[in-house]
């Protein structure tokens, strides 16, 4: 006799795949005991730089039951964004995740639909959808639910598909069957640590956010410190170096999400065109893209810094 828990779990996982998610893992909602001291040390070492929002809601970050009343399960989901084509070689580079439409909107829609399907099929289920814009430790939950392990570059890594995917979750008040964490497969490899252009991976599994190129090109609102000049390896928005060199990313396969396809102009732009970009072109090329986070002036600042 199949239990309701088993039936509901199977339904949620098959629905997630139908909506285009790469994989789905489920954990029991509760306090993240192992993450608490790690997060505290990271914040105390000022590795969040000017990302002061990382200091907010410390308790909620570690306990989803404080975010969702009567939370029982954290449903973690991965969505592939690995592109079939990348920028031409003579270009200022942007992170692959920002090639297409802003993932927050794309994933939020899918999560809403998933929650709607759950309510339709199962009945009265309450919950909330999260896409890295709330105090949820996405990677910790994904690892806990067996979707991968946290690598030395602090990204979630998966044997079959590497790490070029987004992580999102539904936190719901429904008891389900829970998955088990997987094991670490980084071994003695230090490719990401050795390749980081700004030595931001200060120890295996520890990234100093305030040294990361993504931080300087996206989060930092003031001028980029002059001492960083020459160390950005042409990254103008974000940085994929630690993922590009990761051996597990040999297994990345192109995504099938049309909304993540880039504006064709983006892939062909040369350095000269980037340097001469106008606000009009910026608006057209990055119409619904995550690159809009830096705004036109922020992108110009980054490009001028790289010149």
From TrEMBL:
Phosphoprotein in keyword set = no
Q: Give me the residues that bind tRNA, please.
A: 221
Record localization: Cytoplasm
All residue ranges annotated as the 4Fe-4S ferredoxin-type domain in the record: 174-206
Cofactors (names):
[4Fe-4S] cluster; cob(II)alamin
Cofactor comment: Binds 2 [4Fe-4S] clusters per monomer.
Q: Give residues annotated as binding cob(II)alamin.
A: 61, 132, 153, 156, 167, 214, 239-240
- What reactions does this protein catalyze? epoxyqueuosine(34) in tRNA + AH2 = queuosine(34) in tRNA + A + H2O
InterPro entries reported for this sequence: 4Fe4S_Fe-S-bd (IPR017896), 4Fe4S_Fe_S_CS (IPR017900), QueG (IPR004453), QueG_DUF1730 (IPR013542)
Write down the superkingdom of origin. Bacteria
GO molecular function annotation: epoxyqueuosine reductase activity
Write out the catalytic residues in the record.
132
Name the SUPFAM superfamilies for this protein.
alpha-helical ferredoxin
- Family note: Belongs to the QueG family.
Role, per record = Catalyzes the conversion of epoxyqueuosine (oQ) to queuosine (Q), which is a hypermodified base found in the wobble positions of tRNA(Asp), tRNA(Asn), tRNA(His) and tRNA(Tyr).
Q: What is this protein called?
A: Epoxyqueuosine reductase
Where does this protein come from, organism-wise? Flavobacterium arsenatis
Q: Which gene underlies this protein?
A: queG
């Amino acid at each position: 006799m199949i239990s309701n828990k088993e039936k509901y779990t199977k339904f949620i996982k098959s629905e997630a795949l139908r909506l285009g998610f790469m994989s789905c893992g489920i954990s029991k909602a509760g306090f993240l005991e192992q993450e608490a001291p790690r997060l505290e040390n990271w914040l105390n070492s000022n590795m969040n730089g000017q990302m002061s929002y990382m200091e907010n809601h410390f308790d909620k970050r570690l306990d989803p039951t404080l975010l969702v009343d009567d939370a029982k399960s954290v449903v973690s989901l991965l969505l592939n964004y690995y592109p079939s084509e990348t920028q031409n070689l003579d270009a200022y580079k942007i992170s692959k995740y920002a090639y297409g439409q802003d993932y927050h909107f794309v994933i939020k829609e899918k999560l809403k639909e998933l929650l709607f399907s759950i309510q339709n099929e199962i009945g009265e289920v309450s919950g909330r959808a999260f896409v890295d814009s709330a105090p949820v430790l996405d990677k910790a939950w994904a690892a806990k639910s067996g979707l991968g392990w946290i690598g030395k570059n602090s990204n979630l890594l998966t044997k079959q598909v590497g790490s070029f995917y987004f992580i999102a979750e539904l936190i719901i008040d429904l008891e389900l069957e829970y998955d088990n964490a997987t094991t670490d497969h980084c071994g003695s490899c230090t490719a990401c640590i050795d390749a980081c252009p700004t030595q931001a991976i200060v120890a295996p599994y520890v990234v100093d956010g305030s040294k990361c190129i993504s931080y300087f090109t996206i989060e930092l609102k003031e001028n980029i410190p002059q001492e960083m000049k020459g160390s950005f390896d042409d990254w103008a928005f974000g940085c994929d170096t630690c993922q590009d060199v990761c051996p597990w990313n040999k297994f990345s396969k192109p995504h099938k999400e049309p909304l993540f396809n880039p504006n064709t102009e983006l892939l062909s732009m040369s350095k000269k065109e980037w340097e001469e970009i106008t606000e009009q072109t910026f608006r057209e090329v990055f119409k619904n893209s995550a690159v809009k986070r830096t705004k036109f002036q922020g992108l110009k600042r980054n490009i001028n810094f790289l010149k």
